[in-house]
Write a structure and sequence with these properties.
It is a single chain. The protein is α+β, with helices and mostly antiparallel strands. Helices cover 33% and strands 18% of the residues. It contains 17 helices and 24 strands. Strands 1, 2, 3, 9, 10, 11, 12, 23 and 24 form a 9-stranded mixed sheet that branches. A 4-stranded antiparallel sheet has the order 17-18-20-19. It has a 3-stranded antiparallel sheet with strand order 4-6-5. Helix 4 packs across helix 16 and helix 13 packs across helix 14.
Amino acid sequence: MTENTPTQTVHKCDVLVVGSGAAGMATALRAAHDGLNVIVAEKSEHFGGTTALSAGWSWVPGNPKGTAATWDTRAEAETYLKALSGDYYNEEGVAGFLDTVPEAIDFFEDNTSVVFSYPEKAPDYQMDLPGAKLGGRAILPSDADIRMLGSRRKELQPYLSSYTVFGYMPQVGPDMATILKANQSVKAFTYTASKLLRTWVDTAVFGQPLKRTNGSALMTRMVASALDAGVRVWTSTPVEELVTNDDGAVTGAVLSGERAGTVQARLGVVLAGGGFSGDAELRKQYFPHDRNGGQHFTPTQGHDGSSARMAMAVGGRINADVSSPGSWAPVTVFKGIVSRAQRLFPHLRQIGLPGMITVDKHGKRFGNEALSYHDFGRQMLDHRASEESVYAWIVGDEKLMRKYGIGFAKPTPIPRQLFYAADYLVKGETVAELAEKIGVDAEGLQATIDRFNRDAVAGEDTEFGRGSTAYNHFRGDMDHKPNPNLATLDKAPYYAAKVRMGDLGSFAGIDVDSRHAVVRADGARIPGLYSVGAAAVSVFGGGYPGYGSHIGPALVFGYRMGRDIAELAAESGSADALERAMEVGA
């Protein structure tokens, strides 16, 4: 309901959700299912947030189909998370997560347009820890047709262009595996060509690719379901500040943008507008490597700290009692070939491929490149802890560039001049020349390559154990022998790309209790205010258990928030307070 007065527009609803990523839309879908009137306010001109840019996986141990296929148990999931989180294990939060997973996943599959796929293998990131599983816990969305969104389809967050293959976003799994071999077999080339052709034709005719994959598919399905359920999803509508009554309860918010005015939210406001990794000042406070700025580059969308700042303005705080304040993702910073604007390429998979190493300024490796992006990022930060700048170099040879490329620098036959022009790729005819160009110790680099080559021939990384777990192998090339993660660097010329520190969201976040009500420093709830998703402190204590460690909790806790918000409001008395406030026009 919307009222226009001589001074302002007043929108009324039961629940105001701030942010339109997985957490916000999950909240909206469950609340609408219970008959609540929901507004989703998105500050960007596009809905979907970082979820729409992501691979779309959800780490949800205990989901019914995955559990049935793998005989996974709750005890094993708890054991794994305890080992992963260590001193930061949140027993109550994890219990709430695991309690809710089965009904949340059933809800989305039974009551919305969301369809999940259940890959047989999707190893947990720390396969050497007790309780880890090879599969069953990580699920991903099925592809979607963007026309499900009708006239709203142009409002979907576009793909991260640097991560597409000439406009097409491969689906993680067999689709991506085939496309990565497009220059190695006629069958894979033909398959890839058909995907690209369809993408280009759709873009020419409809202005965007119709087939959506990964996180874009998930958000297409979630938003379409929300619109069908009567949820008001408003883009280009920033929430400027929260509104409170005399008792300190949050009663709504002030909007700007296309629907400027005031929202009166009877049951409360849910902050789901992303973390704070895009806020330079908050990074200086909570990201130790970026105390002086300039050492962090985020590819996330909307993680500008606005949710955290709104919570703090009414008495909330950031909880940084986690092992890692961010979910790290090394990135390469480069320039657009035409626009020359800054672009980012997140290295989420490829560093573990055979024939690729990562070195410091001394030319030395510092960790296992086939770990998850988060864990490799932690190694990178630990290694650079005593130095001002945080960076490293990915190094490979001509064989690597012909077969795999290096991230954004695509393999043969794509012209490499494109990647030199973008300041992405550096080339040296010899190891010594490459070292000189990138400012790395030449003798150290040569010694590192010599040792790595000996290990690659033997099939065992004696320095850091790369290629020693099933997860390592999953990040390599399973067709490469004897080890999917190891190959020699011995064919000139040599190539390098610089990597800096980035993230996929923050793990430190708004302090909430076990039911995701925002709390003050003394632990007391702020009536009418809640937070889910990357905006809130991570339930995993700063650990990254597997594929989809942001989206899984976002779906589960968003679902639970939508289910429970009326009950939570009644518990704190905020529902009655809000009812009275609305009656007197506050």
